[in-house]
Amino acid sequence: MKAIFRLLALAAAPALLASAAAAQSSMPETYARPMQIDAPSGPPIVFNLPTGEGPPRPAAEPAYMPAKTMAPRQDPGPWYIEGGVGGLNDGELAESVFGAHSTGMTGDVLLAFGLGREIISLSDDFKIELGLSINPRVSEGGVEIAAPATFVFDGFPWRDRLPTRLRLGFGPSLATRLTDQEKRLANGDASKFLVMFAPELELGLPTAPEWAGFFRVHNRNGLFGLIDDVDDGATYFVVGLRHRFGLDQFETLQ
Prior knowledge:
This protein has 254 residues and is α+β, with helices and mostly antiparallel strands. It has four helices and eleven strands.
C-alpha cells in the first residue's frame, strides 16, 4: 500500500511543477516560498510556489513642481470711453473732500461722458492720458466741456489681483451757463471759463481688465483767483464706468 501512495505522489509531481512554473511566469516580480508534501514513505517532496509578494520597490523620488508664476498683465488698449452720474455738493472743494460730514448734497445732477487716450507712458506705473469730457448739467441747465490731462498711477502691488489706479485730471473747463452755486461760491465773480480739477479712484476686475468703475471728485475752480478773481466753483461727486480698448480690436472684426 505504501508503494502505491508513493507512486501516486510521484505521478502528480509533474502536474504540480507545471502549475507552479505557469504561476511564476505570469507573476515575474514575485517571490517563491517552499511547499512541502509528506509522502507516505520516503523523503518529503518540496515544491516552490509563488507567494504573491513582489520585490521591495525603491522609495519614490520627491516631485518638484515649478514655481507658479503670475500670468502677464493684459493690456486692454490705450483708448477709453466713460460714462457716469454725479451730484452737486454745497461746499467748497476742501470742505467737500475733507469735511463732507459738514456739507450736504443739493440734489442737482451732472452727467459725465468722456473719451480719451494714453499719450505718454513714463514707466509701467506712471502714465499720462489726454481726454475730452462733456458734462450736461441736468438740474441747473447748460453743459460743461473740459479737456483734462490726467496723470495715472498704476503701481500698486496688488494690481494683478485687484486693478487699482489713482488718476488726477487737470485742464481747461468751459461752461455754457453759470449756475447759482458757482455764483454763490465766487461771491458773484463767477466765470464760464475755469479749470477742471478731478482726483479719482479707479477699481477694475482682474478677469476683465478692460472694464473699471471709478469715483471722482469733479471740481471747477479759478486757480486761487488767477482766473477772473474766482477762487472756487462747483464740486460734484461722480461715479461711473470706464471701458478701455485698442483700435486694433475693431480691425480684427472686419
